[in-house]
Amino acid sequence: MVPASEAKHDKNVSFDIGATTNSRKTWELVDKWVNNCLANHQHCNYSESPNFLPSRLLAIDNTGQPKSFRLITSSECPINTRYMTLSHCWGAKPIERKLRLLKSTFKQLRDGLPIDGLPKTFREAVAVTTRFNIKFFWIDCLCIYQDSPEDWRVEASTMQQVYRHSFLNISALGASNDDEGLFHERNPAHIAPTIVQLKRKRDCEPEPYLFVLEKYGAWRLTFEMEPIVKRGWVIQERLLSPRVLHFGRKQLFWECRQQNACEIHPEYVYHFANVHEHHGDRENLEKAKKPHLWKQLLDVQQRVLVDDPYQQLFIDWNTVLHAYSACVLSVSNDKLVALSGLANDIKHALGTLRPGPHRYLAGLWEERLQEGLCWCVYSGSRPASYRAPSWSWASLDGKIVVESITSLTTESISLLEECNAETDVLDGQETGQVTGGRLFAKGSWTMVRVCGEIDDRHGIQRQLQHFVHPVTREKAESENVSRWHPTAFYDTRDETPDEMFCVPIRLLPLEKDLLVVSALLLARTGENNEEIYRRIGIIYVYFESTEIVREFFAQFPMKSLVVV
Fold it and tell me: Among residues 477, 469, 420, 429, which one has the least CA distance to residue 448?
């Protein structure tokens, strides 16, 4: 508990909450956020291509009756056109009953339709757009042909620009479908921080207090439970848009490059307080002031700041990947496409820092390939159709645990003599869909035996019993290994064959006298003794020294193999 008198004088704790998210009080705060961002946020208002426009937009006409909208092309827009975008959940309604841009609906959308005929979420989003005196709006299902794979691929490749150059992205945070709308009624007493009267001593008068949770982190509960947060495409939409206004069921939230806030914390959310002078050290403050590739999202792990901008890119990528992998996609094959805009950003940024092709390999980066292979998935499942090679996290559905910040900033030791990869991409888009991929590796080649039942409390795992020489089939000397309880983490419950192989990738120091080896767990897929394998999991083995590691794996033959 903290004294309520402190909270009442704290400009970042608001008790003035309206009875609806469309109240006058709410819009006064929204105007403050927007105007402050436009006037004072240099990083939010920079654009490399200020004249960019999407291929198609919805033009809003509020002059006639009924008020209407129509589909137009970018060539019909005046110079310096500003537009807004929408992030929304499509919902479970049959797709045939939704208004979409189709070859059969093009003419009626082109001629114009009444705004009142739109789903509630779209109608209210148009009202928000009009409130900012903006006459053009972009909604995915009305601006991209939904029955043309060719048009979808073309437009998907420019998605990063569509959101990046939007004046403001409206997020229908609290709507699970397009009929629920943006605005919600609420009980202000359930949203505003709660004051309780407590006696510090038995013979004292009661004094007002505020729960610490409500001062510092209660906003998270009203954000993370909202429907749109787990939609895969929305991660990219939020990161790329200069400004995002979230319409939640309980309150509104604001995200831009230089401010994250909500109605009960109108200045900033305390979760990220370490970037503010009075909460963080000066070193972190200066790092936080530097422009970063993307904004800090409200519900994503707080950005770890390092001095090396090249290293920072991979840290930011892994942070986003961790959050993205926990999201859901309506179309399974969008796994890489829905992240392609962010991958293009990273590729461009890497190129400005260091020369090189900076190849993107089905979700992994060539210059961090060995680190990128060391992912683990909790309760993974494979999609029905091919999406990525087995060594890529994109081949699975499920929350991915990627390399920790420690492992990215600590010098690791490669245990492979060779390691490279290639992918087959669709339509020449390196960061888009892939149709195949191969990992070429040369290193110590072993077989492994596991024991015990599968433990799926923290991933699908089993205890590693011992290593086996793949040629002689003799149990390897493993006195220095078994006492550290090496563990095999399977990618899925369905892929646990009796014959499994292992190739150590790299060695990472954790602390004094403790190192961990990450190794791919493989199953043979090639016929006629071809050395072709697929990944089925990852193994972590702990050692006390580099010398013990090298001595242990020297027992096994070197092997060149292909993982698909």
Answer: 469
